[in-house]
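Q: Sequence in, structure out?
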Amino acid sequence: MNAFIVNLRQSDIGCHFLNMYCGCLLYVDDIVLLSPSVNGLQLMLGICFRTEVDLSLQFNCSKCRVAGGRRRG
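A: Exactly. Output:
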């Protein structure tokens, strides 16, 4: 799982808080990607896919979800 963190952090795509990278959260074998834009999220998914292929892993697509934030106004 460390490879996902390293690759995502190096890309610098995703959310930041006080100059700290917070684009991915991991717990055991689950990963949450956080991005302020759909384009950023798509780029992060591409990084995860390439990492998955490099490590000969396979995501369980039945557990994948996309959640949008609420719009104010």
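The CA atoms of residues 27 and 60 lie 15 Å apart.
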